[in-house]
Design a protein that fits this description.
Strands 1-2-6-9-8-7-5 form a seven-stranded mixed barrel. Strands 3-4 form a two-stranded antiparallel ribbon. Helix 3 (about 185-200) runs antiparallel to helix 6 (about 265-285) and helix 5 (about 240-255) runs antiparallel to helix 6. Helix content is about 45%, strand content about 15%. By secondary structure, it is of the alpha+beta class. The protein has helices at about 75-80, 120-135, 185-200, 210-225, 240-255, 265-285, 290-320, 325-389, and strands at about 5-10, 15-20, 60-65, 70-75, 90-95, 105-115, 135-145, 145-155, 160-165.
Length: about 400
């Protein structure tokens, strides 16, 4: 890692020797200015405005211009001798939740690395302490003739330092906000929510710089003398109805993800939200393009006609009116009722016979019991008469 600054990271009374290196790189395409006639590079020469002498780096110094246009020369030695503790030390003065920092304040990220093997242990200690607390350290340091506000946090196995813009450097967003009153309907919000859900989560690792690739392809084609890449022709911009654009975007997003308009639960909810939004838009009348209006109305008429036909068919099925669906339903119900009635009658008849049989059996048993009792009584009477005689 190429170091752009070195010094100490002061964590209370713990001082950690560190070096600062860039955490990012750029693949921005750069061009040189050339003379069109002979392709010679265009050079910029620094000249003195008083005698027009061409100057070298050794001839150039720096000076501070006062409000009354006086120049005060400042040397590198003067800057190195400034009584600033932040010149060689990042002094941690407090901690906060990294998520609480306004995104507008975030500037350039750097890796903080231990400057020597002796710095490894206090370095790891601070990294682990920040990770366990879920906090970021705040401090200041001077680099490249400027003092910077910095945020230091644990990032994987390293400490990441991110410079911050000073609070008074942030401009008010009021000038960028839309002017006047803007009304957003619930149906528009529902469609926007559906679109967000349909597009899904973004994978930042899948993005790449297509402009840089296109320039490289152009340079290669020119070097090889082959056909230059054709530019994509964008159609003229159109002012479209917001609701129609949202609906089309939802369908396009679902198509890109291989989903149908009504596939699965998400498709059903998306379709439901789309229909509700369409109904809300027709009520609010926010359409802005005539042909889209007429197209939507035509679609609404077809939908209404379909609903009426469905309702009519359903009614016919329930009432058994004219129409094949109604006749079949009526006949089926009638046949079913007759079969159920016959079955019920058969069941009752069987029950009656069983009851009658049980009744007959009971009566016969009673008769047999009475006869037995009479026979026993007669036997006793005969036995008594014999004893008396």
């Amino acid at each position: 890692m190429r170091s752009v600054w070195s010094g100490n990271l002061a964590f209370g009374l713990v001082s950690i020797p560190v070096k600062l290196g860039s955490a990012v790189s750029s693949h921005k395409i750069s061009f040189r200015q050339v003379h069109l006639t002979d392709q010679g590079r265009v050079r910029y020469q620094k000249t003195c405005e008083l005698d027009e002498e061409v100057l070298t780096a050794a001839d150039i110094g720096r000076a501070y211009e006062t409000p009354d246009e006086q120049l005060v020369e400042i040397t590198d030695a003067d800057l190195r001798a400034l009584p600033l503790p932040t010149a060689k030390t990042i002094e941690v003065s407090g901690f906060l939740d990294a998520a609480s920092v306004d995104a507008m304040q975030l500037d350039t990220p750097y890796f903080l690395a231990p400057a020597s093997p002796a710095a490894n242990k206090p370095y790891v200690l601070m990294r682990e302490a920040l990770a366990r607390a879920g906090k970021a350290a705040v401090g200041k340091f001077a680099m490249r003739n400027s003092e910077h506000l910095a945020l230091i946090r644990a990032h994987d196995d390293v400490l990441l330092l991110q410079t911050l813009r000073w609070p008074d450097e942030l401009n008010s967003p009021a000038e960028a906000a839309p002017k006047g009153s803007v009304s957003i309907s619930d149906s528009e919000l529902k469609l926007a929510d559906t679109l967000i859900s349909a597009l899904g989560e973004a994978d930042l690792t899948s993005y790449h710089d297509e402009y840089a690739q296109a320039v490289e392809a152009l340079v290669t084609a020119k070097l090889e003398g082959s056909e230059l890449p054709a530019a994509e022709q964008a159609g003229p911009g159109k002012v479209v109805d917001l609701m129609a654009a949202l609906r089309a975007s939802v369908e396009q997003a679902k198509g890109g993800r291989g989903e149908g308009a009504g596939s699965g639960a998400s498709g059903a909810s998306g379709a439901s939200a789309t229909d509700e939004a369409a109904d809300g838009d027709d009520r609010s009348g926010h359409a802005s393009v005539t042909e889209l209006k007429s197209s939507r109305r035509s679609g609404a008429k077809k939908t209404a006609a379909g609903k009426k036909a469905t309702a009519s068919k359903s009614s016919g099925t329930r009432s058994g009116g004219t129409g094949s669906g109604g006749t079949r339903s009526s006949g089926t119900r009638s046949a079913g009722a007759k079969a159920a009635s016959a079955k019920s009658a058969g069941t009752k008849s069987t029950a009656s016979k069983t009851a009658a049989a049980k009744g007959g059996t009971s009566k016969a048993g009673a008769r047999k019991t009475a006869a037995t009792k009479k026979t026993a009584a007669a036997k006793k009477t005969t036995a008594s008469r014999r004893k008396a005689g």
